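Box S2. Input/output pair 1.
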Amino acid sequence: MKKKMMSFLLLLMASLLLSVSVGATESITPNNASDISWSYIKYDANGEVVEEGVIPNSDLISPMYTWEGVTLDNNQGVSFFPTNSSQGLYAVKGTRINIYYQLDRSASHLASVRAYNTYGLEWSVTGTWSSKSGTMDALESDYYFGYLQNYSSDPIKVTEFKIIF
């Protein structure tokens, strides 16, 4: 009886250790950053939240619907961050961060990758185009998120967005 009880306890401890080690590999790392689902918050010209949503990641699952994009009127902005973190993706100082986004048309706008905790720390560009990719190195260890703002007098639609380490 003692032998069966000891075997049961060893089996239980082994299964708990296995589940802990598997869970530890699920953190957001450069190896799986492209598997992240993205959420967005849309702001009006005064900085007030007007819409929130999730961009389904078709690489992870077959979504029940296709994301049509988020439309920005003049001076409206939108922040993009991982669905599981309202702060952004964590990057250690020196990490290479790549951003890519697509608009429905060429338009004047601002695009940036911003640090969450370090005010003013960002990569940003302003110009007129319909898609853009950019690269920055994290100057500080911090959480980073994407931001786009429409400077055009006509609405634009953001149809794709990604940040990849």
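Box S3. Input/output pair 2.
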Amino acid sequence: MNIEKNINNLQKLADKKNFSEIEDLCLKMIVKYEQSFLYYFLGMAQVNLNKIDSGVYFLKKSIFLNPNVTQAYSLLGKVYKNLGMNDLSRDNFLKCNELGLINEGMYTDYIEVLILLDRKDECKQVIEDALIKLPNSKEIKKIKERFV
């Protein structure tokens, strides 16, 4: 199995939202290769297939193998947000931010969680940071107008 070829295949499948195929391919590859990116793709696929518990497990395994996988923290933050586990969601979005992920969706979710947690000072700071990194973000500007 060519790892680089399979990474490209996994990304193409993710772009097409073929989560069952991603799951199958990752489960076959994990037997031979214990790689962080495989666990990330498997976790992402399982979350999208509503296999939340195992998806979270595999995302955490991805982070265990490589603590700099911003996408895994971001997806965990989103999963925890959807489950109403806002403290865990905040922790994962904070880690994304610390690792330098610049993504409008992540910032939007992070800010919404901070609003739910009533962390006003932190929320204002994150909004300002987001607008420095994404000055053309209409979504973050709308949140700022509502919040500030």
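Caption for Box S3: DSSP finds nine helices and no strands in the chain. The longest helix spans residues 52-65.
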